[in-house]
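We were asked to recover a plausible sequence for a given structure. The inputs and outputs are reproduced exactly as logged, with field labels preserved.

PROBLEM: sequence recovery
POSITIONS: 512
GIVEN STRUCTURE:
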């Protein structure tokens, strides 16, 4: 799950982009990049690591111009450690185009070979986003007339992208000398919002994965970019928009509400915070129904993402809510770290129990989800080591049993704790006395009740039903085989080793 950002302003946007990326940091911790447009020149700086580590004052100074795009990366294709796959990507023809992508394409291999044979374009990395950029660039190129580009030509290019590309994609791109182009896939799987700010009677536009980036930058949330929609803002500030796909439906990824997004964001009309409170309420109902005789002394959240659900669950059950685990504020999110070894080590570094909240008590631990079980196994052990009598474990999301192919790195069934196990076996595996999972329809209801217009979700990791309709067992087998051969994120790839090389790793370019 990456974070993307795009802005057309009236004054230099380098600081605005840097601050915006900081606000989207929770969506990707592996690499960060910014490109600004100054006249017909792009200025680019990107590198491996967190935003605060990638950009130094001298880099910021070089990022001149009143428009730009930015990206924070959580890899789902290619390799976690490859600087070459850090975004934004650049291609020099036509005009010069840069692009940043959140999501994952499901027909990358096919596109790549079309690209080589028909479009005569070379793809130099294993990133699906580089492929997406080249499809877009090709479709723009065939619509250029007399070196000029109309809004209709841009929309035509995005229509063609929607026809050729499958999967999930929220995109911000810039075409040198013309403007900022943003678009969202026809199912609206990944989030993308649009905001504005009026300066001296002129409107500035900002687009971001999450509304939190707009709020804290002084922009007003206008609306979500619609599924299949393209918005084109010229560098002079003229805004044009069109839905560029025929069969569109809004099917946002449920896992955004469960885990990825910040609770203070509003995605597709749903306050993530409110949806998480609702998840807690629904889960409390299930516990009341299924475990009427179980005595629970205290409800303890697993920081960070489960806090709101756990709080509401405790309220609904009339139980005390206690912060039994203290989170080290300097450790990032463990689930989106590359490699199981580093994820495992990080849980212990990140969370430490307050023994007096556990000693002699029956505790109900609440997390937003159990994916690989890395967190839950360690946490249950910590609770037991701290003297808990019984340890129950509740998950605000249903069991994750199927790979995600739309931008979350859970590509193989074998690495998912719940695959092939029932609740009792899962409890045994994590060492808990019992596990309680949210039901899928209850989770959907928790989100839907905040925005009644939402009736479909991308919920494949819980249900095995893939919204784009092109994913079958053979496709999943092929990804698993590729993962086995070391394609995609290598296991054990330790980002701490990357940080040492950080400044050497940084790529800096001024692109004419
Ligand atoms: O079963 P697992 O594979 O461990 O994955 C699930 C866990 O990972 C996430 O936490 P993370 O530390 O990434 O982020 P958070 O601080 O936002 O909760 C999520 O909130 C769960 O706690
Ligand atoms: N999580 C994402 O959105 C990843 C974007 C892209 N597929 C990459 O691997 O870089
Ligand atoms: Mg967590």
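RECOVERED SEQUENCE:
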């Amino acid at each position: 799950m990456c974070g993307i950002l795009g802005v057309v302003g009236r004054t230099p946007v380098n600081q605005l982009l840097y601050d915006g990326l900081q606000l989207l940091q929770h969506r990707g911790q592996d690499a960060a990049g910014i490109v600004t447009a100054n006249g017909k020149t792009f200025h680019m700086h990107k590198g491996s690591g967190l935003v605060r580590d990638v950009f130094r004052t001298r880099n910021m100074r070089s990022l001149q111009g009143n428009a730009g795009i930015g990206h924070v990366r959580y890899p789902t294709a290619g390799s976690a450690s490859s600087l070459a796959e850090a975004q934004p990507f650049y291609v020099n023809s036509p005009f010069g185009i840069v692009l940043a992508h959140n999501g994952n394409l499901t027909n990358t291999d096919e596109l790549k070979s079309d690209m080589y044979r028909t479009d005569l374009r070379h793809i130099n990395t294993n990133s699906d986003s580089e492929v997406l950029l080249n499809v877009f660039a090709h479709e723009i190129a065939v619509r250029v007339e007399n070196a000029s580009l109309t809004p209709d030509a841009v929309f035509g290019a995005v229509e063609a992208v929607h026809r050729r590309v499958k999967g999930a994609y929220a995109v911000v791109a810039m075409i040198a000398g013309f403007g900022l182009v943003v678009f969202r896939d026809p199912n609206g799987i990944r989030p993308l919002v649009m905001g504005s700010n009026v300066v001296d009677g002129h409107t500035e536009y900002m687009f971001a994965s999450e509304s939190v980036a707009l709020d804290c930058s002084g922009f007003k949330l206008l609306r979500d970019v619609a599924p299949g929609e393209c918005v084109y803002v010229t560098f002079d500030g003229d805004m044009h928009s069109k839905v560029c796909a025929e069969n569109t439906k809004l099917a946002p990824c449920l896992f955004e509400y469960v885990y990825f997004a910040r609770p203070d964001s509003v995605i597709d009309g749903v306050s993530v915070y409110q949806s998480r409170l609702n998840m807690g309420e629904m889960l409390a109902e299930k516990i009341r129904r299924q475990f009427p005789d179980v005595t629970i002394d205290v409800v303890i959240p697993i920081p960070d993402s489960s806090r709101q659900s756990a709080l509401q669950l405790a309220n609904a059950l009339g139980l005390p809510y206690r912060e039994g685990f203290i989170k080290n504020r300097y450790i990032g999110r463990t689930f989106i770290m590359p490699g199981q070894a580093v994820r495992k080590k990080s849980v212990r570094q990140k969370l430490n129990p307050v023994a007096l909240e556990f000693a002699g008590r029956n505790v109900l631990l609440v997390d937003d989800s159990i994916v690989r079980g890395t967190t839950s196994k360690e946490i249950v052990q910590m609770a037991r080591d701290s003297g808990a009598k019984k340890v129950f474990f509740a998950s605000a999301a249903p069991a994750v049993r199927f790979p995600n192919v739309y931008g979350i790195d859970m590509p193989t069934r074998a690495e998912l704790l719940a695959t092939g196990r029932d609740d009792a076996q899962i409890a045994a595996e994590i060492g808990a006395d019992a596990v309680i999972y949210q039901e899928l329809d209850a989770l959907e209801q928790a989100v839907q009740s905040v925005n009644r217009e939402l009736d479909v979700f991308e919920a494949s990791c819980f249900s095995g039903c893939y919204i784009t309709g092109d994913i079958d067992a053979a496709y999943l087998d092929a990804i698993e085989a590729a993962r086995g051969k070391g394609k995609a994120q290598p296991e054990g790839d330790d980002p701490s080793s990357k940080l040492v090389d950080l400044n050497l790793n940084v790529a800096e370019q001024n692109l004419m």
